[in-house]
Design goal:
Layout lengths: L13 H18 L2 H5 L6 H22 L6 H20 L6 H23 L7 H24 L4 H6 L3 E6 L9 E6 L9 H20 L6 H22 L6 H29 L17
Antiparallel strand pairs: 1-2
Helix pairs in contact: 1-3, 1-6, 3-4, 3-6, 3-8, 3-9, 4-5, 4-6, 4-8, 5-6, 6-8, 6-9, 8-9, 9-10
């Protein structure tokens, strides 16, 4: 499968999107560490901004990969991105302050391996397969790391498995065990133990898959597709902000929610504007009246 189906060339070079999205995502994830330094949770929203930046870059990568005739490849590429990214992200969280950088490195290695298998062993023979799956794995890892940081205020593993955990002390019986207490930890309320991570997985994957699928066609334009990507990213931030009320204080979670809503409303309005610009004709039509309905 080597015949390329042309999509819009766009105004911003892909390498510029790659560098801008990668650097912005990593920097914003690191900004969430201010929560640990200052002992607050107000900077958690930067994790969501990091996810939007990664998705912005990843949407253009999806376009480059799926312009080679992969009509149904957008959903599968998105799921591969987040499947490989999940592995890289979880492993990387054990490396402390180096987590974002390690996540990028591990994701790149796994993505390159999967891309090689798809192209050379499965014989898909797509010129950009290896580099695209490498990029998408990094996008998946950074998006989930960003949204996870937004939810619990930290990208560190210990915070993802202890925030929301219920710790009870259990005394041991017997003279030989006198004075010994054992901590019994119920982690069902944590980010990973409470399956919030699965919600983050789907929110990010859909936000990555949808924009190019929605805008694909002879009149696809890069700025409209990227604007829809940011709108989907901010939309995914909204439920994560709501989830963060379980892990952060009221003010910190509210800051994330307000930022998410402002970003969503702005990007949605801009997407409507660009859609009207690209439409052949746009009419402010009235709803069609149904027979027997209200007149």
């Amino acid at each position: 499968m080597t015949v390329k189906m042309e999509a819009s060339a766009g105004g911003i070079p892909h390498k510029t999107l790659l560098i801008g999205g990668l650097v912005t995502a990593v920097v914003c994830i690191y900004l969430t560490y201010l929560n640990q330094i200052l002992g607050v949770g107000y900077f958690a929203f930067f994790g969501g901004i990091a996810a939007v930046a990664a998705l912005w870059w990843g949407s253009d990568t999806i376009k480059h990969l799926c312009s080679y005739g992969l009509g149904t490849g957008v959903p599968s590429a998105g799921m591969i991105a987040f499947g490989t990214g999940a592995i890289a992200m979880i492993v990387a969280t054990k490396f402390g302050i180096a987590t974002p950088i390690v996540a990028v490195i591990i994701a790149a290695i796994i993505g390159a391996i999967i891309g090689y298998i798809a192209n050379e062993i499965i014989n898909m023979n797509i010129p950009v397969m290896i580099i695209s799956l490498t990029e998408l794995a990094i996008v998946g890892a950074l998006t989930m790391l960003g949204l996870a940081s937004m939810a619990c205020g930290s990208f560190l593993f210990e915070n993802m498995i202890t925030n929301g955990a219920i710790v009870t002390a259990v005394g041991l019986s017997g003279a030989e065990n006198a004075g010994i207490l054992v901590a019994n930890i119920d982690a069902t309320g944590t980010l990973i133990g409470g399956c919030v991570f699965a919600v983050i997985f789907m929110l990010g994957a859909i936000a990555l898959q949808h924009p190019f699928n929605a805008c694909l066609g002879p009149n696809e334009s890069q700025d409209r597709t990227l604007m829809l990507t940011m709108e989907c990213g901010f939309l995914s931030m909204i439920p994560v902000a709501v989830i963060s009320y379980a892990y952060l204080d009221l003010v910190a979670a509210s800051v994330s929610l307000v930022v998410s809503l402002i970003g969503f409303v702005y990007t949605l309005r801009e997407y409507f504007r660009l859609s009207r610009r690209d439409a052949y004709a746009w009419l402010d039509a009235k709803p069609i009246r149904e027979v027997g309905g209200e007149q």
